[in-house]
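Per your request, structure below.
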């Protein structure tokens, strides 16, 4: 599934007062992004995706991976991700009804951070020739984290966002910052941050579909 880029200047490079649409630079205006493993993301989304956050940082599964089309092969781009709250609520899981319920207003927002893909910057030809994977990105609930991990509040819902930024070679490139990026988001990648899985069906699907969880499949439930 491809994401439709947001047409309003936001997040990276600053906002335009009033929220008017930006005319994007030709290097980013034609960029299209396709989510890899979309069917698996949709399976999780139907159950209510949960992502573990730990003090040390935990990788996401499914991993956020995309295929990119429409870049200028010779231009340089930086790729990055950030995570925004879906709403201003905190949640709790009701085991008797197997559902998430609103538990109150959201906690104060965690420090906003971005994760740069380690291959950035690279030419469009490089980005487009293979799947782009954010497999090094880690989520933490440690507000004092100094490892550069994405800091999230447990029991809050988040939307991952993917940004494509054209590296403008002009000396006054800062003047055009809001025109030189596009933001993409896939609704099926929304998740609730948790310190332990709440929905047992999420646990089962993670074990069944994660190649790194193979050891768990071979262990009797009583041995966990």
């Amino acid at each position: 599934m491809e994401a439709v880029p947001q047409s309003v200047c936001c997040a990276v490079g600053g906002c335009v007062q009033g929220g008017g649409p930006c005319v994007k630079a030709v290097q980013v205006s034609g960029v299209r992004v396709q989510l890899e493993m979309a069917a698996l993301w949709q399976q999780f989304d139907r159950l209510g995706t949960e992502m573990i956050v730990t003090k040390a940082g935990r990788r996401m599964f499914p991993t956020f991976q995309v295929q990119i089309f429409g870049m200028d092969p010779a231009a340089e781009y930086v790729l990055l991700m950030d995570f925004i709250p879906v709403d201003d609520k905190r949640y709790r899981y009701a085991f008797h009804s197997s559902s998430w319920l609103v538990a109150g207003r959201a906690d104060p927002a965690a420090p906003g951070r971005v994760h740069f893909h380690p291959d950035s910057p690279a030419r469009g030809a490089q980005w487009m020739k293979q799947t782009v994977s954010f497999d090094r990105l880690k989520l933490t609930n440690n507000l004092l984290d100094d490892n550069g991990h994405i800091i999230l509040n447990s029991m809050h819902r988040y939307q991952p966002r993917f940004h494509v930024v054209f590296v403008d070679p002009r000396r006054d490139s800062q003047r055009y910052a809001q025109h030189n990026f596009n933001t993409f988001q896939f609704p099926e990648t929304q998740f609730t941050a948790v310190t332990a899985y709440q929905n047992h069906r999420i646990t089962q699907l993670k074990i069944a579909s994660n190649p790194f969880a193979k050891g768990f499949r071979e262990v009797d439930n009583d041995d966990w």
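The chain has a mean pLDDT of 88.

Regards,
D.
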